[in-house]
Amino acid sequence: MSSNVPIAHGDITAPTPQNTPLTHAPIAAGLSRPTVPDISEDNEPAEDESEDPAQITGAQAAMLGLVQGRLADLVGKSSGYIESLPIDVKKSVEALKGVQVKQNELQNQYKRECLELEKKYLELQLPLYERRNAIISGAAQATAEEIEAGSQASLKDDPLYTPLPSDEAAPAAIPEFWLTALRNHVGLSEIITERDASALKNLTDIRLSYLPSDSPKPGFKISFIFSPNDYFENDVLDKTYLYQEEVGYTGDFVYDHAIGTEIKWKEDKDLTKEFEIKKQRNKNTNRTRLVRKARPTDSFFNFFSPPVPPPENEDEEKLEMDYQIGEDLKEKIIPRAIDYFTGKALEYDVMDEDEDDFDELDDEDEDGQFDDEDSDSEVELPRRRGPPKGRGWLECRCCQP
Amino acid sequence: MSSNVPIAHGDITAPTPQNTPLTHAPIAAGLSRPTVPDISEDNEPAEDESEDPAQITGAQAAMLGLVQGRLADLVGKSSGYIESLPIDVKKSVEALKGVQVKQNELQNQYKRECLELEKKYLELQLPLYERRNAIISGAAQATAEEIEAGSQASLKDDPLYTPLPSDEAAPAAIPEFWLTALRNHVGLSEIITERDASALKNLTDIRLSYLPSDSPKPGFKISFIFSPNDYFENDVLDKTYLYQEEVGYTGDFVYDHAIGTEIKWKEDKDLTKEFEIKKQRNKNTNRTRLVRKARPTDSFFNFFSPPVPPPENEDEEKLEMDYQIGEDLKEKIIPRAIDYFTGKALEYDVMDEDEDDFDELDDEDEDGQFDDEDSDSEVELPRRRGPPKGRGWLECRCCQP
């Protein structure tokens, strides 16, 4: 294992920018994550068995009962209470709803200002992104100051790190920088096929931009910049994510839909298709011929043909995944490309993800025990959506021999 | 069920501010959630069996193997790649780390500006919070406009809602407003005992404020305002959450610790203690006497004696819960108190929470099946921390007869 990809050995340390996992907080850029449009499943075809109540497992049924009970109990309780109030008090309650409308308007205004702040800081980051790109492409040479600052950062991560000599370097492009960075993202690594990789070697930059403030829907665009290659004619592949004009219940933006650039594949180079050669016999002449049939196949480049949003499409999972990849590119990979290239970010991502799984196993056990006890004395908070529970024991062990 | 607590019946509708669940996005106020300090568990006493590798279940062991394999594979891959690069390319990589340091500084500056924006909008909300409080306390009468706006909001939620006559009302305090709101929060409802409820009937407001910009650590304060009551002398109970000065790896604030007001309990009224009467016999005189022994008990008011942060305290779960309650008060209950009072917010909270549980059951099944297939073609994205997957089928069914 390289010395610049340190794995902490479980000492008790205060969190610092160096030892705090990358994905601790859900939103790297401070703006709440947009939400996904609701998909109702009432009209789903009956053959979708996962939706069939008859297919509910015992655990699910128990949980369903619990929720129904709690809902009926709690919602019922508050409703009954309100109905029992004198008319003037009911009017006070109604007036509070009116005040809440004004509070919501302010909250929406706040969210829009958050988006503007996000845009402002992207502008401020752009010169650094350009500098990064110049170093990656070999258009500019690394300065002694940059190398020195990088060595200092490496030493902060790992006190045993051996710094490089920080004299100025000759311009030296970093081969396959973006392909390596993408492949060090847990989710993307699994949708990039070997065939995709050959094309992605020509990926020279990934850039973020926002739609102009006067565009009908707000949103952002991720641009993949390619050098001339054997696969397609485009030099830029864009993926644009659009929000709905109206913000959601919490004042957060809601995803509307995404648009991808149409890829102009060179002949026989479409990576999103697999070709089969089939024999066909002409019924009249009885002669056979070979026919090539194309069928869709898994490929990273399907990212540029995003799924259609509901109500036309009810494959919520596909849609979620598409939005998730967009968010991860925007919030994690573009801002911290070097950490994905070196694998530093991946280390945190993997930890984070699997720790959560362990927590849930524990939670289930505990819940099972707690049910029999006095419910007054037990605390059952909603599942935490925010930061995970720090770096757990997994990390301490998996780096041991 | 009251007509103003509608439960959607699963029609396909576009998300609007009215039908989008309250907790869709993790951060209502746009600033990333602070993270919890890391707690290493290497030094834990051996009797904590949940940490003992010998206690790992089959599923955990399988997962552990998976993580170790993936880490070794992926981190190893990128590291080896970097080590194989020529010295000048290595210098380019090192320089990128140096550029990243500057990017991080900008990101930190951005986060601080987000906090200032949050403060600015709290200031803008304050007149509305004051107006809300005047209506709740009966100090002011609801205006016809407010009642009308409230009725419009209710009608948007439920077209069958019967509006109240919107002529001006006499001032009419809403009894137990804040107690009802707190009890409609899933987590808090379970830590508020019946004894606590008697005291919380005197809770007249919950207020949010930020620590001044020049205070040594940034943070926020939640103030519970009480009318004179039989339980304690204080008229305000504060809970203050402090962030560490240095922001974390992602540029998000990290919780440092919390401070609570010391409650001056009136005699025999300490709700955080239970008293036992025990007989004691004097060995010399052989006379018995009755002795009262106090022992700690569950109570909402323990919230004002927050757990000590690590490294002194390693009960991560307690600490998490304390931070979680603070966040929910700040991000959900204070901004949307009326929705908690009516139960509208609770409806979303419960849905949200339990839907997640179902998703995870599904995920596990799928993972089990996918393992046997070609891994190239499968997508396994990190667990989504952001918005949950919309409103699921649970909602469609639990409101059916």
TrEMBL record, chains A, B:
Sequence ranges of Acidic residues compositional bias: 39-52, 352-379
Entry-linked Pfam families: NAP
Gene3D superfamilies for this protein: 1.20.5.1500, Nucleosome assembly protein
InterPro entries: NAP-like_sf, NAP_family
Leader peptide range in chain numbering: none
GO CC annotations, alphabetized: nucleus
Record region (Disordered): 1-54, 352-391
BP GO terms, sorted: nucleosome assembly
Family: Belongs to the nucleosome assembly protein (NAP) family.
Record protein name field: NAP-domain-containing protein
Species of origin: Suillus discolor
Lineage per the UniProt record: Eukaryota, Fungi, Dikarya, Basidiomycota, Agaricomycotina
